[in-house]
Amino acid sequence: MTNVAGAPGAQSAAEPAAPRKGSETLHYARRNPKLLIGLGIVLVFLLLGLIGPLFVDHGPNEYVGPQSQPPNGEFWLGTTSFGQDIWAQFVFGVRTTFLIGVFGGGIAFVIGTTVGFIAGYKGGIVDEILNMLTNVVLVLPAMVVLIVAIAYLDARGVFVQGLFIGLTSWPWAARAVRSQALSLATRDYVDLARLSGRRTGKIITTEIAPNMSSYLVMSFILLFGGAILIAAGLDFIGLGPSDGVSLGLMLESAVAWSALQFGMWWWFVPPGLGITVIVSSLYILNVGLDEVFNPKLREL
User: Fold this and answer.
1) Which residues lie in coiled coils (predicted)?
2) Cβ–Cβ under 8 Å, residues 257 and 80
């Protein structure tokens, strides 16, 4: 009973811990060049994809100008061999890239974290079944499955493509989350929550997941970048959205119509560079977050 009297004082002393931890993380985040550079570049492309199409008064696939024109004052990135505005295609393609990344990466993140948390927390036969399911999906040739599945669809949209990417990209995230959840599931505060009668979902969301928040953020970023690369690969072989434009489809069109042979660098360089810069920036951002969240990697 003597501990009860001292509990309020202990609680008040512990209350500033979370704000102090948050302010400390923010302090190191502001001083980390990798995080700032990666985040800045990603935000620039995100704003370009959101705002850029608003300032284009024609569709990305409309024939609006002379054919095979290099960049000039009227057409900032030139035109295709059919007279299409490459700048319009680029800004709409950036928007599509982020949509597929968020949707495909988000589906993979939700499935992977759900499977990983349940397997790691429950253990036993549940863990064995979910781990077997994860291994089965993991050994499947994901790209081959995607090519076969998407090739048989008459109409391919951004969300359909993102759905298939998400359904084949979650296993590694599930394995990583499972290993973390296995460790946290044996902690005293989790045992206390279990003894208090809380439901499994409540324990996972309130006790285990918050202690993995930084790890989950970095996992989503990796899944986001992976979805972009997979989508670009599908687009490049002609299995991209059939009713829109993307950076990968721009590359596919440039190759199909011999842009490289005719020296039309302005057709294939912007989309190729865009994909490279976006994915590289996400990787740099992830490395910066790892240095911020991991005290052993922080630079004073």
Assistant:
1) none
2) yes
Residues whose CB is less than 8 angstroms from the CB of residue 83 and which lie 6 or more positions away in sequence, other chains included: 63, 64, 65, 66, 67
pLDDT of residue 15: 41
Interior angle at CA 220, CA 19 and CA 169, nearest 5: 160
- Alpha-carbon distances of 162 from 83, 89, 176, 183, 240, rounded to whole Å: 30, 20, 22, 32, 10
CB-CB contact of 281 with 17 (8 Å)? no
Contacts (Cβ under 8 Å, ≥6 apart) of 43: none
Length of the chain: 300
Phi, then psi, of 219 in degrees rounded to 5:
-65, -40
Coil, helix or strand at residue 172: helix
| pTM of the predicted structure, to 2 decimals | 0.86
**DSSP class of 159:** H
CA 206/CA 111 separation, integer angstroms: 19
Name which of 105, 161, 144 is nearest 278 in CA terms: 105
d(CA 104, CA 241): 14
Token pair 């609006």: residue: 64
Cα separation of 5 and 10, whole Å?
10
Record the tokens describing residue 22, joined without a space.
């948050």
**What are 65-106's pLDDT values in tens digits?**
899 999 998 899 999 999 999 999 999 999 999 999 999 999
Q: How many CA atoms lie within 13 A of 111 on its CB side?
A: 21
Cα torsion 75, 79, 84, 89 to 10°: value is -70
